[in-house]
Inverse folding.
């Protein structure tokens, strides 16, 4: 197990370096190849040639791309000074960049938004995994029944309806018309009750979409596994049905579910764009939309790197869970 964990951690470090290099190259090298100047995305309203030249010197945009990338990595560890003569702007470690449009560092801006996205993702994951998997298992065990057809019909509706439709509909009914839920978000540190109430509709809306997909996947996987020889052998040995389903069938069913869970959770932690925008939540997804609208390159780069980091880490956790569920993974 230790050797397996060491290999996976080494692979994660290499993958993060590759992701940061690729992302950095896309943001700083591709504009040059297309004939545009990255400095124009930093100057804000001051777009005169002197300001552009000063920004180019201050950010080191005249250096080769690998030199710029190395300075970026140094900034993540030790911080960085953006200097142009006596004009020096210090960015503390970890320095994901500095927005000269909003005059603030990227990392504190990210830290303000990450708790919102974490809260949204964590609550939605609990709802959609428990609801989707349980619904899929029951549908597989009662194949062709009224429950199966009703649950899969609802799941098909959940997959088909986009977030901005179900989100706005839930707001219109439960918040504005019936006034059952106050949809205004508040940080958990200032008002835990309002934090919970403000996230109820986003949790339900987001989990409705994903639970539908997980229910269909669980049902299809469970039906396939129930026809395997080792399931028939377990029943022939006289094992009870709960033991056959819970200990044998579910163990194999969880493998594909964990695979997509790692991708979905990593993507959500990078920012649930539609959900956060629909419910006006100040998370990474809504922050990314605002940064794109204002062409704030450092903020966009920071959100992209954080999203990539979460996806890589989520997949690492999934690989470790594979080793727990299936001992053959540890020995491979």
């Amino acid at each position: 197990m230790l050797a397996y964990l060491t290999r996976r951690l080494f692979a994660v470090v290499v993958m993060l370096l590759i992701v940061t290099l690729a992302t950095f190259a896309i943001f700083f090298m591709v504009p040059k190849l297309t004939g545009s100047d990255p400095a124009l995305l930093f100057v804000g309203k001051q777009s005169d040639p002197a300001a552009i030249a000063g920004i180019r010197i201050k950010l080191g945009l005249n250096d080769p791309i690998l030199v710029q990338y190395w300075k970026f990595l140094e900034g993540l560890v030790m911080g960085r000074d953006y200097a142009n003569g006596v004009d020096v702007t210090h960015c503390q470690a970890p320095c994901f960049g500095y927005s000269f449009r909003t005059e603030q560092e990227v990392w504190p801006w990210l830290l303000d938004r990450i708790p919102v996205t974490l809260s949204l993702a964590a609550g939605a994951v609990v709802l959609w995994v428990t609801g989707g998997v349980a619904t899929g298992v029951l549908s597989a065990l009662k194949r062709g029944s009224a429950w199966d057809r009703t649950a899969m019909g609802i799941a098909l509706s959940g997959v088909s309806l986009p977030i901005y439709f179900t989100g706005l509909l839930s707001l219109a009914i439960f918040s504005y018309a019936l006034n059952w839920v106050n949809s205004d978000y508040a940080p958990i540190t200032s008002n835990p009750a309002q934090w919970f109430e403000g996230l109820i509709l986003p949790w339900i809306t987001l989990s409705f979409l994903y639970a539908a997909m997980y229910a269909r996947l669980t049902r299809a996987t469970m039906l396939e596994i129930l026809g395997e020889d080792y399931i028939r052998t377990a029943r022939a040995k006289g094992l009870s049905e709960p033991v056959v389903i819970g200990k044998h069938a579910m163990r194999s069913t969880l493998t594909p579910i964990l695979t997509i869970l790692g991708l979905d959770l990593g993507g959500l932690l990078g920012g649930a764009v539609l959900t956060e925008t629909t419910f006006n939540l100040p998370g990474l997804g809504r922050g990314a939309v605002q940064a794109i609208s204002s062409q704030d390159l450092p903020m966009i780069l920071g959100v992209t790197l954080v999203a990539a980091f979460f996806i890589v880490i989520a997949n690492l956790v999934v690989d470790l869970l594979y080793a727990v569920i299936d001992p053959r993974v540890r020995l491979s």
